[in-house]
Design a protein that fits this description.
This protein has about 260 residues and is of the alpha/beta class. The protein has ten helices and ten strands. The protein is globular and about 60 Å long.
Length: about 260
Amino acid sequence: MNFENILIEKKDSLAQVTINRPKKLNALNSATINELNVAFEALEDDDDIRVIILTGSGEKAFVAGADISEFAHFSVEEGGDLAREGQEMLFDYIENLSTPVIAAVNGFALGGGLELAMSCHFRVASDNAKMGLPEVSLGVIPGYGGTQRLPQLVGKGKAMEMIMTAGMISAEEAKGCGLVNHVTTQEELLPLVEKIASKIIRNSSVAISAAIRAINASFEDGIDGFDVEIEEFGECFGTEDFKEGTTAFLGKRKPNF
């Protein structure tokens, strides 16, 4: 696959997707969103890939926001289509991917950049990272699920403050409110994420996919997450991974998933 705006690197069971628009601080435009969709679809279908890392090129930004020049002239209808299509094509797609996606947030993650990081299954940040949703300073609200995922992660009150002030928070503050899981130096960011990924890879990818579906279900309207958990739990008993995992445990050896 040849892309203009992203890079893909594979190493054993790990894939790294890098948004590569450093001169634009990796800002999201429609072409980049399309390329990311194609890349994630391909990686989801690749049985050898067990974890995906998403990051931005350079030392300044993960993704500094959306490319405002693309939609500054849009009508009401065009604005709604922009939000709907991007959300379905990329942000919701990543959130519901059965392959775990970890955001390695290096530098600025603002607007669409933070919304992209929040769509990943969890986030690790460099200590120079700055995060925020500045959309109201442009006369619009956060899109791509920003008003929904931020309260889920940091709580309603904190999300209200962040969105209303359009301000940025530091990596440490983001960790304190649950927006990111870990903070480290920029040099150690990818090594730390790869270390976490290696722990995930050792476990059952079938069970991890089931866990993702069960966890996400609790945030869906009209869905009882407990019922989904029961169903997914039961389905695990019919998998080869369950047989291998329990046999290995009883035999006092490491499982080979």
